[in-house]
Amino acid sequence: MLLVTGGAGFIGSNFVLGQAERGIVNLDALTYAGNPTNLETLKNQSLHHFVHGSINDESLVNQLFEQHKPSAIVHFAAESHVDRSIKTPRDFMETNVLGTFTLLEAARHYWGKLEGAEKQNFRFLHVSTDEVYGSLSPSDPAFRETTPYAPNSPYSASKAASDHLVRAYFHTYGLPVLTTNCSNNYGPYQFPEKLIPLILHNALNDKPLPIYGDGQQVRDWLYVTDHCDAIATVLEKGELGEVYNIGGNNELANIDVVHHICALLDELRPRATGNYADLITYVTDRPGHDRRYAIDASKMKNQLGWSPRETFETGMRKTVEWYLNNSAWVEGVTSGTYREWIEGQYD
Ligand code: NAD
Ligand code: DAU
After folding, report:
1. CA-to-CA distance for 200 and 279, rounded, in angstroms?
2. How many angstroms is it from 27 CA to the middle of ligand 2?
3. pLDDT digits (tens, 9 = 90+) for 102-146
4. Under 8 Å CB-to-CB from 38, ≥6 apart: which residues?
5. Which of ligand 2's atoms lies nearest the C-alpha of 159?
6. Which residues are catalytic?
7. Do 3 and 65 contact (CB within 8 A), yes or no?
8. For position 179, what pLDDT does the model report?
9. What are phi and psi of 51, to 5 degrees?
10. 247 with 295: CB under 8 angstroms?
11. What is the rounded CA–CA span in Å between residue 255 and residue 222?
């Protein structure tokens, strides 16, 4: 039995769907980013138990540990969008920092009472980001697990704080923790506030494709199910207290990502007139925008035998096809509050 937090969000729901044969208690607050329809196929599945609630609710979290006696917790729940963290940072401190603290405390009390194999096998896996390492120049080596932390946005600072709490619970209390720091994910069920689904959504609605600044910022892209496989691998084989960097070996400038999407759409769903790239529009840059992220995932490969299966080309084709075939899902998540966010952010 796994206790998963944030399992109705983008990565969490992909993880839960991929682990459907396991017993899962899925705790999610269903914020704007959480969507129960992602889990529609598990509706009549007795192994999946969905709980609508917050990781900040101490008594609920304690009760879930006591009632379901999980063998591990996989912690995805977070406020995850950098632009929102610039506008409303408090939400990020509450969920990412205090929420993680609440989970660690509950796990510590629960684990403290376990005995024998149950105690030995228990794991707290914390899902984090490469953004905690800050920004690289073009010639810098990729982030390693030993790269010093230098977060630059309220989002990455809140994730860095949560990583430090997880580390402290291992060193102080011996709580059996694992931390993963991953690069940019893309794939099915990603909320269209993030670059790739936003570009797809705007392109299909003949709207401008907004590129922040000069579009030369570099990210490393990983197909979401490769990230989920990496998490399952760390859960199974990771060494207690260790940190694992996860990446796709796909460093690309934002403008090149957008051109790639436009070319795929030109092929799969041509516009009535012109090409999709005609919609590209340069807009005001994100404040404090990190220039480059890159991940050295050699520890995952050499110690745990994990490598990504998808290339950027295969993963992007699957992603574009998924969004084209799931317009009802996109329509469902792009109603009222989504429109308000887009108007506030891009006007
Ligand atoms: P997301 O925003 O799509 O989903 C977050 C989920 O957490 C939602 O279902 C939301 O309802 C839930 N949630 C938010 N606050 C909650 C609370 N207080 N209690 C319970 N549930 C709450 O995020 P995502 O992109 O799927 O990211 C998942 C995790 O992976 C995050 O911790 C993020 O920092 C990390 N991460 C994301 C990426 C990426 O590219 N998306 C890369 C590396 C790491
Ligand atoms: O690196 C991992 C991180 O990747 C995760 O921890 C975060 O949760 C996730 O949101 C993501 O952060 P980014 O800020 O890199 O992702 P986003 O999709 O918001 O932006 C990707 C790049 O595209 C970034 O350089 C900003 C740029 N961008 C984004 C948007 C939304 C644009 O140029 N235009 C846009 O409209």
Report:
1. 11
2. 25
3. 999 999 999 999 999 999 999 999 999 999 999 999 999 999 999
4. 8, 13, 17, 189
5. 6
6. 130-131, 155
7. yes
8. 99
9. -120, 120
10. yes
11. 17
Ligand nearest to the CA of 54: 1
pLDDT for residue 339: 87
Tell me the best of 3, 4, 11, 333 to mutate to test the pocket of ligand 1, counting ligand atoms within 8 Å of each CB and taking the most. Answer: 11
Both tokens of residue 266?
Answer: 């030109």
Residues making up the chain, counted from first to last: 347
Choice from 92, 163, 195 to test ligand 2 binding pocket (greatest atom count within 8 A of CB): 195
pLDDT score recorded for residue 317: 98
Sorted by sequence, the CB contacts under 8 Å of residue 331 that are 6+ apart come out as none
Low-confidence ranges of the chain (pLDDT < 50): none
Which domains does the chain carry? 2-184+223-248+290-309 (3.40.50.720)
The pair of three-digit structure tokens given for residue 249, joined into one six-digit string: 């070996």
Distance in Å, CA 265 to ligand 2 centroid = 21
Q: Could you report the per-residue pLDDT of 18-70, keeping only the tens digit for each?
A: 998 999 999 999 999 999 999 999 988 889 999 999 999 999 999 999 999 99
What is the whole-number distance in angstroms between the Cα of residue 210 and the centre of ligand 1?
23
